[in-house]
Amino acid sequence: MNFFNEYIDAMKSQCLYRQNQVYEPISASHVADGGREYLMLASNNYLGLTHHDKVKAAAIDAIERYGTGAGGARLTTGTHPLYEELEKDIALFKGTEAAVAFNTGYMANIGTISAIMGKDDVIFSDALNHASIIDGCRLSGATRVIFPHSDMDKLKELLETTPCRGKRMIVVDGVFSMDGDIAPLDKIVEIAKEYQTLVMVDDAHATGVLGHGRGTAAHFGLEDEVTIQMGTLSKALGAEGAYVAGKKELIDFLINKARSYIFSTALSPATIAAAHAALKEVMHSPVLVDQLAANGRFMRAELTKYGVQVNQAETPIIPIIVGSAERATAIAKRLSEQGIILSAIRPPTVPVGESRLRLTVSAAHSQADLAMSAKKIAKALQDEEMD
Ligand SMILES: Cc1ncc(COP(=O)(O)O)c(C=O)c1O
Asked: Residue 353 to residues 238, 310, 356: CA-CA distances in angstroms?
């Protein structure tokens, strides 16, 4: 039993201890705890669709018609008709031949990468890729080559010099989850063509955000060039689950080989219906995606006005690098005492010395709330500096 306590004590002494904090969501932009309301700047609910009337109604209707749980895996118990409708629309939206849904983004990444890549293969993975990509690469048994973040010269050099008997894959986050920047997919595709390499993009933070909501490939006009487009239904689409979109043969292959797809109970009807209703909102109207982009620009301008250094990406993720884990935790605590929730991101999620406040903007935020929070964030950073 000492093993458990020793680990926890080590985490506490390094300011890396994590604990669940209970918050009750009261709207798409606010949460409550103990009778107090907080502005939520730590959610990936980029379009506020968790609380959209049509999305909620679709989930409620699905429960009333079909009950709560799926009862089994899709290949054994049968696929719900709601899945077929959702997957058809995902493919249409992404401009691909087909799509398949997974239960989570984590499962989509580990299942897809480990199904496609094996021990004779080589995966070239960006240094800042999400943990689920890293775990998928590990699980595949392929040789892993990590290239410095978005360094295209180094990627080329590594492709040139790494021996490979089998297939090669370049895999990147479309929008990097902790830095908010966009992968240089145009250059990656060019390099991939030169070296006959598969390209996989994780659009967890690009779905509903970039390319009129269609993701990173659409943002660059490269829908036909990216073999494997993965994305989530759990962030901008306000539900749960994930998808992989691509050619029919890719999707058929994954259904037959991806273990996280085959050996797990399907999503509940309510979740599929909610994800589909959310997707339809994005497909049929640019309003929310445009509002999100406007809010991102507004928040960056407000923070810059107060002297806070921020990235200038066209994404809703704004990291503020503060250095130590202690500093990140202390500033986040200060802000939570003032009614603002944002994430203190610490190692191992980011490298040592690069702990940060990660704030995310949503289409559901009012500009008055964003302006008020930018002022408080700037003040909290200054106060922490002086203490
Ligand atoms: C880039 C990226 N990929 C995959 C995932 C996993 O998605 P999910 O939360 O649906 O498992 C996340 C989210 O945490 C992510 O940020």
From this structure: 32, 17, 9
